[in-house]
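Instructor's aside before we start: the two examples that follow are unrelated to each other. I chose them only because their records fit on one page, so don't look for a connection. First example below.
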Amino acid sequence: MKSRNSVRYQKLSNDDGFVDAQFIKPEPKVPWRAICLAIGLFTVGTILLVIGSLLFTGHFDVKYADRTYPMLILGSIMFIPGFYHVRLAYYAWKGYRGYSFEDIPDFD
């Protein structure tokens, strides 16, 4: 049996192995192409919805009545995601809590 004097002890380190720099989150990149696409979808969708609404209410000539529902449907399909992503980009730009540019999908 070994005596107590032959056992080598080492001092425990006070360092937990983490560096403060590893917890710093880098600033997210702004997805400019996705934001431009969202603005385009929002704008064209709004225009199509307005024209479709004017066709539906009869402010345009009756000969264009067959284009009413396609304009309303396409306008809705373009307006909804465009508005959603423009709103996300605006809230992230203003710095509202819970919104970040990372929430917007990028094309990379």
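Example two begins here.
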Amino acid sequence: MADDLEEPSQSQPILQQAPEPEPSIYVWILQFVSVLIFSSVVIWLCLTPKSPICFITHAYVPALDGGNSTSHRPHNTSILLNFEFLNPNKRMGIYYKDICITLYCSDAVIGSNSLPDFYQGYKKTTAYEVPVSADLQFCKGITNGTARLKVCLGSVVRYKIFRSKTKHHRLFNEANLRIGSNGRMSGEKNIKLMHHKSKLTKN
């Protein structure tokens, strides 16, 4: 009779689901550091000033203007240059100082002039007309002809970021001009002075 009794079934262990592992503190630290680095890069890019952009919009050499009898004379040594200064920065002003413009012809200096110091707000454009008295021998040599000039512009700038100012940045820019027989700039209308050399100087 005992044989007829069914043996009780063996108990099966109840498998408990393992709790999901909580994110490690190292993962949170890594995420925090990544966000911090990304934010620092964005802030650095926003606060890194861009150099001012300068164009020559017009140039006139009266000694080359054959159609103007009053200016087509060897003793007229004036050269007129029109410049535009552009501040490409957002929320950053620029202080310009010691702006010197030098003209070259065949690697020889033929004249120079300077501009007064000025401040330029962000996203602003400032125009200047600069007369340069050229070397008399140069003007005699180009009468009834054309000329190729190199314009060099050197300046010291400081950037205004919020209420503070950066250190001085010394900038050098240059461009080549072709002056036609009418005494005016030929080719491109607006010639950009290209960045040649820049270095940071202490106060």
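The two ends are 110 Å apart (CA to CA).
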